Amino acid sequence: MGRFIKSNAIKFTKLGDPRETLSLTTEEVDTDLKEGEVLVRWIACPVNPADINIARGVYFYKRLPPASLGIDGFGVIEKIGPGVKYVDVNDHVMPLHPHIQGGYWREFQVLQALGLYKLNKRLPLEAKATLTANAATAYLMLKLFVPLEKGDYVLQNAANSQVGRAVIDICKAFGYKTINVIRYRINVDKLKQELLDLGGDYVFTEAEFKENGRKFVNSLDRPLKLSINGVGGKSSIPISANLAKFGTMLVYGGMSLKPHEILTSSLVFKSIKVIGFQLFDYFGVEQDDFRRRTYDELTELFLAGKLHVSPMEKVPMENFKEAVAKTMAGSHLKQLLMISNEHASSHI
Prior knowledge:
Layout: E1 4-12, H1 18-21, E2 22-30, E3 37-46, H2 49-56, E4 67-68, E5 74-80, E6 92-95, E7 108-112, E8 116-118, H3 125-144, E9 153-156, H4 162-174, E10 177-182, H5 188-198, E11 202-205, H6 206-218, E12 226-229, H7 236-241, E13 248-251, H8 264-268, E14 273-276, H9 288-303, E15 312-316, H10 320-329, E16 334-338
Parallel strand pairs: 9-10, 9-12, 10-11, 12-13, 13-14, 15-16
Antiparallel strand pairs: 1-2, 1-4, 3-5, 3-7, 3-16, 5-6, 6-8
């Protein structure tokens, strides 16, 4: 019989509204590790829209209740099992295969060592907790689909999201210019300036871009070849309609929860391409070397000061309902669940 330890975990008991189905529970974790296994103590995990959709049962992969949420996060190795060579005790790690062995909103978890990425300890806590999904999504969308040159323009909506901010950072690092569209809000001028200070070249509200976008894009010194869409609904129309002939719109999300609308004229007379992007389609288990190289490159951008941590609100684990509600409202800072103390001593 293995040695069991108590571990707090946030779990949903049935599919539905996570504000109603999630609860803080206690589970037992067996620390008698098998070949290739490690024991991870999770430190911080963000609340992502994907987590909300997993709890609702509408995400592209299913997690059957009772189960824990969490598609990315940062943890510390507390114990290693036989045959583990890639990581060691006290290493900082994040998951490589959240769609296979996810559910990180818990204190302790036994995982396969080869399914983890060893983080550089010099990274900020917020970067370590969110590197898995958002920055990688922005990075690969900019690298894999449309050959861009320095001085080219990239148009995006949801520019103040985690992915949107990463797009601004990475474009600036690569020498591309960004045209950023955001939803109107009370403090919109403050947000506009924040994105400009981050490195965005132009920032419009949706209403401003709907009215003036075509004239603005026509004034650019080169054709607009790429747009990035994370909102859907009517927001998709100007994001696609202002592309140059044979341009490409990448779709990585649908924050509006409405179908993406595209003008027939954009498809027929401009022959634009619309491509859906799901990170894990490009990060399968068989592509681990590519995935690790991608995270190595993102780490270099962070450490060089070219990729920045987005504003986040740190929330104690026991206040998870507040963090979930704010994420679902969509008008708050990124919520970061603080699962345990990064500098706590191990008692395993």
